[in-house]
Structure formats: structure tokens, C-alpha cells
Amino acid sequence: MQLKDVNALITGGSQGLGETIAEHFVREGASVVLCARDAARLETTCARLRALAAPGQKVFARPCDVSSEEQVNALVAFALQQLGSLQILVNNAGVLGPAGPVESVPLKEWQRALEINLYGVLLPCRAVIPHFKQAGRGKIVILSGGGATKPMLNLSAYAASKAAAVRLMENLALELLPFNIDVNAIAPGAMATRIVDQVLEAGPEKVGQAYYEQNKRWKQEGATPPAKGASLAVYLASSRADGLTGKLISAQWDPWPTLHEHREELAKSDIYTLRRIVPEDRGKTWSS
Question: Would you call 109 helix, strand, or coil by DSSP?
Fold first, then answer.
């Protein structure tokens, strides 16, 4: 078991990828606290995971809006009270946000997406970091999305917030390097989750015909299995990935099961990071 005797807090853990991550963590020996806004669904998921837990493992759940500092602080206090300590934080909670041209989508919906996708990462990190520092170790895993590495037509709030969350990850990795706290982000790939349903509901006139058709195929034919992202989350949370930090890793495309073998090379490079591309990177020699 890769996570035996460690404790994890997982946001957005009631359904979709968050639920799959939580299940993988429990099967690998971890005790977990889950949070989500839907209390009924959260309790159903919690009960299912408790049935999978081995003797001595604990599974708890608490409703929480991750964009609320007060609720997040109460959540972390609850997790520490129930589990005694925390070694892992998985920031999975996220929303698609409004679909449509940036000048016409409701501003409050745009802001709300930033509150959940960005502040919903920042606030749990702020709450757990002091405990990780005191313990002298910790793992923070942030779930990214396609918007982090490329523009997404008419989904500006989603793309901007996910890119910001990845840059926040890189900053935190630098800040926390002296404290043996690893911080990484996961690009889980296209999954047939509720976000796909939201894209289809928005329609091609808001999200663009090409992206709509792509999501339609994912819905009908299947997409990247959530288990891939969950397995990568287990890897990053485990001792095998100790010292691997500040990276955005694709569950679908990157050779992550052996990245620890390249730990020293990765620490000195900008591989798996967000960086500006200059002409020389593409074989061009433009001059002023």
C-alpha cells in the first residue's frame, strides 16, 4: 500500500474525479476527509468509502465551500480533530464557469469561477501549510485542466483560473522547498464528468462548434478514465515522489510512474512548467 498510515484532505470529493481519487487513496491505505458543497451526495460517497476501508482507516466528510475562508478553516480544524494530523492536501474542487464571449458573460459568474478555481486552491493551502511546516513534510496536489496550457474559446474564466492555479502551484513549490513540502499539479485529461455535461448544456453557440463536438464525442464514446488522474495523485502523494515538486504533470501523456528516477534533472529544469516560448525555442532567429 502506497499511502498506508497517512491522512489526506480531498476537496470536491463527492463525485467525479474527486470521488475516484478518494477511493484510490482509501484502497492504498490512507485515511481521508472529504468535502463538497452537496451534503447529501457527500454523505453517500463517504458511506461507500467507509465500506472499503480496512480496520483502523478513517473516512469522514464535511460540507464546505472552498471559496469561503471561514468554512475552509473550519474544515481543516475538523480534519485535524478527526484524523490527528494531515500529510496530504488534494485540491480538486472546481467549476467550468460561464460560457460565452468575455464581454457578455455575467461578471458575477466569472468572478465566482475565480473564487472556486483559484481561491478554492489558495485557501486550503493557507490553512494546511502551517501544520505541514510544523511536521516538516507535506504533499499538496492541485488539479489543473485544459485551460491551464491553452486558450479555450468562450471559457475565459475557466482557462484563466486554471492557469492561475498552476502558477500558484509553482510559487508555492518554491516557497515550501525548504520545508520538505512538495507541491504539484495534475492535468487529468479529458474526462466524461459533469463538466462535459455543462459544456453540452451550454451549446455550440457559447462554447464553439469544435469544442462542443469534442465534448459530445467524449460523452458518447468515453474519454480519459478518471482512474488515470487518481493513480497519478496517489503517486505524487506517496513517498516515491518525495522531492518532486513544482511540476504540472499529464496523467494521460507523461511517463509519471518513473519520474522519481529523474528527480535531480527535473529540479534543475523547466520541464513540466508554464513558460514563455521565444522564437529560438522554435528554431527562429528573429532580430530587432
Answer: helix
